[in-house]
């Protein structure tokens, strides 16, 4: 199949390389708002490039992958749907809730499949945690802790087009909390601060944040994250239940050091980027998208799922700004 990809920045170039290696994919064509960048990446990866997204969508694609900046997602999803091409789009769907809802309506009124990129759903650890909740082996889950700690911040132009910390970063935790538990968030209290470079604050954003969520079965969740985690890229989830506890992302590569004398775990090199932490999950996610394109699989993460996670992120932004509990 022939897959077109738009947006060849950090994740787009990485996704283009992954797509090229998939057995179901014969051709990859890339485009970017900066056509010179698309040409450079195409040359590096040995794929072709198109001068712009109109040419890309008009080139006989079987599938369309959107990895451009978040501010461009809504229009690009609309273009993919209008062209009738099965579409994959990186999270989140848009910068705000109203536009996310418009995309939801557009996609649900069409028959074109649209798959949103929450790759943690394809990670073996999160899948095992979901199975542990489903089988009841943890008993009832009373507390969950999640963290999304980036080792270093993205380039500063990224921030004004990202939607802010909760919509850009913690939204991954919100999606996976729903996926693992099958429960909905009913209220949030969130806070955040800018303690690193000043540009986060200049864009009205924070670089470290935390939220306390209450789920509809009275499970309490603390979700924290930062753009500055010196120890490495650290993404984990702990679930504590009446019969047992389980941790996702706790292995030899966890960016954590024990303070206990004589304890050497974890002994491996910490992950430094989301690309190395989630490499197998991204392969599984894009493989799933090729199955959606082939018509052999239903969309595994829908715009409705993305809308639900985004609503939680949006509530956290409101909570942070108004310093109060927000009920969903
Ligand atoms: N799932 C994940 O783990 C994950 C990780 C990183 C980023 N992302 C998401 O991927 C998207 C891209 O992030 P990134 O870190 O690669 O950003 P980036 O800034 O490195 O790259 C964005 C690219 O999009 C291009 N672009 C912007 N507007 C465009 C438009 N209208 N048409 C075509 N190209 C356009 C830019 O020129 C740039 O090359 C964001 O939405 C982000 O939320 C997801």
Automatic annotation (TrEMBL):
Top-level class of the enzyme under EC nomenclature: oxidoreductase
Presence of keyword Ligase: no
Protein's UniProt keywords contain Oxidoreductase: yes
Family annotation (InterPro entries): Gfo/Idh/MocA-like_OxRdtase_N (IPR000683), GFO_IDH_MocA-like_dom (IPR055170), NAD(P)-bd_dom_sf (IPR036291)
Pfam families referenced in this protein's UniProt entry, alphabetically: GFO_IDH_MocA, GFO_IDH_MocA_C3
EC number of the protein: 1.1.1.18, 1.1.1.369
Domain Gfo/Idh/MocA-like oxidoreductase N-terminal, chain residue ranges per copy: 1-118
GFO/IDH/MocA-like oxidoreductase domain segment(s): 126-246
Keywords assigned: Oxidoreductase
Domain of life, per lineage: Bacteria
Single GO term (MF): inositol 2-dehydrogenase (NAD+) activity
Stated family: Belongs to the Gfo/Idh/MocA family.
Protein's name in the database: Myo-inositol 2-dehydrogenase/D-chiro-inositol 1-dehydrogenase
Organism: Kribbella solani
């Amino acid at each position: 199949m022939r897959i077109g990809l738009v947006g060849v920045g950090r994740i787009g170039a990485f996704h283009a390389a992954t797509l090229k290696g998939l057995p179901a994919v014969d051709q990859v064509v890339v485009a970017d708002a900066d056509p010179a960048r698309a040409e450079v990446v195409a040359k590096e990866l040995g794929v072709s490039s198109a001068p712009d997204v109109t040419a890309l969508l008009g080139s006989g694609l079987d599938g369309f992958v959107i990895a451009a900046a978040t501010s461009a997602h809504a229009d690009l999803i609309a273009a993919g749907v209008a062209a009738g091409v099965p579409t994959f789009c990186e999270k989140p769907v848009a910068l705000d809730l109203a536009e996310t809802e418009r995309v939801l309506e557009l996609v649900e009124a069409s028959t074109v499949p649209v798959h949103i990129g929450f790759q943690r759903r394809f990670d073996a650890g999160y899948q095992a945690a979901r199975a542990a909740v489903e089988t009841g082996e943890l008993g009832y889950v009373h507390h969950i802790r999640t963290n999304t700690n980036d080792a270093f911040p993205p380039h500063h132009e990224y921030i004004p087009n990202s939607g802010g910390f909760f919509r850009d970063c913690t939204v991954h935790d919100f999606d996976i909390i729903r996926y693992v538990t099958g429960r909905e968030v009913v209220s949030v209290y969130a806070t955040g601060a800018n303690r690193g470079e000043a540009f986060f604050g200049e864009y009205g954003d924070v670089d470290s944040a935390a939220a306390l969520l209450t789920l509809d079965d009275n499970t309490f969740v603390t979700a924290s994250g930062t753009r500055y985690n010196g120890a490495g890229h650290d993404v984990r989830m702990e679930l504590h239940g009446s019969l047992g506890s389980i941790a996702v992302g706790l292995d030899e590569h966890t960016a954590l050091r024990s303070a206990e004398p004589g304890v050497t775990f974890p002994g491996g090199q910490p992950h430094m980027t989301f690309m190395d932490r989630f490499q197998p999950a991204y392969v599984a996610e894009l493989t799933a998208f090729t199955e959606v394109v082939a018509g052999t699989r239903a969309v595994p993460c829908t715009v409705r799922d993305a809308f639900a996670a985004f609503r939680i992120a949006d509530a956290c932004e409101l909570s942070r700004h108004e310093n109060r509990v927000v009920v969903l």
